[in-house]
Specification:
alpha/beta, TIM Barrel, Lyase, Ornithine Decarboxylase, Chain A, domain 1, 2 domains, six-stranded mixed sheet, 13 helices, 20 strands, binds pyridoxal-5'-phosphate
Amino acid sequence: MTDLQDAFILPDEFDIAPVRLTVDLGALVDNWREMARRSAPARTAAVVKADAYGLGIEDCGIALYEAGARDFFVAVLQEGMLLRSFAPDARIYVLSGIWPGQEAYFYENDLVPVLASEEQLSLWMAVTAEHGDHPCALQVDTGFNRLGLPLEEAIALADDVSRPASFSPVLVLSHLHSGDTPSSPLNQQQLASFHRIAEAFDGIELSLAASAGTFLGPDFHFDMTRPGIAVYGGEAVNDMPNPMKPVATAEARIIQIRDAKKGETVSYGGTYQLTRDSRLAVVSAGYADGYMRSLSGTGVPVRQAVAGGACGFIAGHRVPVVGRITMDLTIFDVTDVPPSQIRAGDYVELFGRNIPLDEAARAGGTIGYELLTSLGLRYERRYLFPDD
Ligand SMILES: *Cc1c(COP(=O)(O)O)cnc(C)c1O
């Protein structure tokens, strides 16, 4: 028996992958620096929750750390523990706060819980009384009704002379719900509420803006901004040209190119009928790879989805999805691509450098955030480093 390695020259896995993802860490770092430039003189944190928006917390976290980020936000304790292992001296905020039983992990890994409720607050007071001081942050709700102490309770807490002297958050934050809509008066309302918090917690650092809020301008920046999606190349603000560089490019391999006749139908349900003799490329990505079924457009009823569905990109051509996207396969109409420019084995871009992330997302009635964080486990990933 010959060892596989002796019998074959093993190709680079990226070159033979059915689905593959290129993450341009240079673009990621440029985007973070651009958000830092817009935020200055405020500091700029890096948000790396949900595996850095699906792009890999380790590679993205290290790149952002090396670019100078020292404040990081994660959603949950486990993400914070992982990040700690390669960001030794960063301040790591855990947005969902703390649950009973997690205390030791927060202390051990030097993580900062973002306390979000009366319950978490009293837990934290008890924990610090027993185990000693440890930094915490406080989230205040200014209208989102998601996480955070109600405004009046937060102000009462700030004024409460009986609160333990040791209770002193290192950061007070709130979150805008309509930052993506600059014309919304609700942004000004949340800002006004946050100013009341700023007064009450005089001398403590403040943070209000995520990506969208950063674009709203200096009034919203306070001491630190917390951009996520913009750093990953996504659109943060509606109806504004996206100034960020694309970071992630997803591609899938053509398994087969087939000819089909006018009048025939394509894929499950036969919902798509060809209006001309066509060439179809069957590509090895489907909804199991986060290329969601709703991106099919035609034939899949989804509220507000664009009827046309998504487009891929190959050899300088935009090629539309036809018929329903299936679990592992998607069919593109490549009739308009000259046959000499396309063959089985080539890759079709799903989104990235040529098909903007948010264009693809919109075709499925969703947002870039969801497309990125749904990519699934089959992608072979390649990271381009800033110096490449
Ligand atoms: C996710 C999140 C952010 C980052 O939001 P983006 O819209 O991706 O910039 C900032 N702050 C909080 C509280 C968040 O939950």
